[in-house]
Amino acid sequence: MIETLVWIALALCVIGVYLSWTAGRLDRLHTRMDAARAALDAQLVRRASVVLEVATSGVLDPASSLVLYEAAHAARQAEEDHREVAESELSQALRAVFADADQVEAVKAAPGGEEAAEELAAAVRRVPMARRFHNDAVRAARALRRHRKVRWFRLAGHAPFPLAFEMDDEPPADLADRPA
Question: Which of 106-110, 137-141, 174-178 has the highest average model confidence (pLDDT)?
């Protein structure tokens, strides 16, 4: 009788340790996901800021400046539930304005334009990487949260189900190919 109770207690301890380890792993994934989201937000804000700077510099024609300014301003002011659309529209505006290599050269030819072009190129290259890191963290957290043990024992607590950030982040070809 005592031996059976000892084995039951040992089995319950092993199960408890395993569930605790799984809950810790899920917590680390949520922390990684939050850090990746903060990095993505920082890169999106940086990109919008650089685009605003280029749009207001006066080196582009007025129509291109207006298109970039409105798209960047909308991306910075967008509510969370409309942010993906606003950021996609900014990407589309960048591709439309910088579809011609002459626009990039016009920015570079202006005083301080070389630095602005480099900063813009770096900003548009970093957004897809940050989004990929975020979505990879979301994918890993979702995979773990789908396991039965996580659902049955409610190891995720009250954390919301992770959502990927889906947007058009294709950079303009003439900016993406620039060396860092």
Answer: 137-141
Is residue 57 within 8 Å of residue 110, measured between CB atoms? yes
* C-beta of residue 120 within 8 angstroms of C-beta of residue 51: yes
Digit-coded pLDDT (tens) for 45-60: 999 999 999 999 888 8
Q: Which long-range contacts (CB under 8 A, 24 or more apart) does 119-122 make?
A: 119/50, 120/50, 120/51, 120/54, 120/175, 121/175, 121/176, 121/178, 121/180, 122/180
Q: What is the mean pLDDT of residues 132-156?
A: 94
CB atoms within 10 A of CB 27: 14
**Residue 179 CA from chain centroid, whole number:** 22
CA distance 129 to 93: 20
Main-chain phi, psi angles of 89, to 5 degrees: -65, -35
How many residues belong to the chain? 180
pLDDT on residue 110:
85
Q: Is 105 helix (H, G, I), strand (E, B) or coil?
A: helix
pLDDT band at 105 (very low <50, low <70, confident <90, very high): confident
Cα(87)–Cα(131) distance, integer angstroms: 12
Q: Which ranges in the chain belong to alpha helices (H)?
A: 2-55, 62-77, 83-97, 101-109, 113-145, 148-152, 173-176
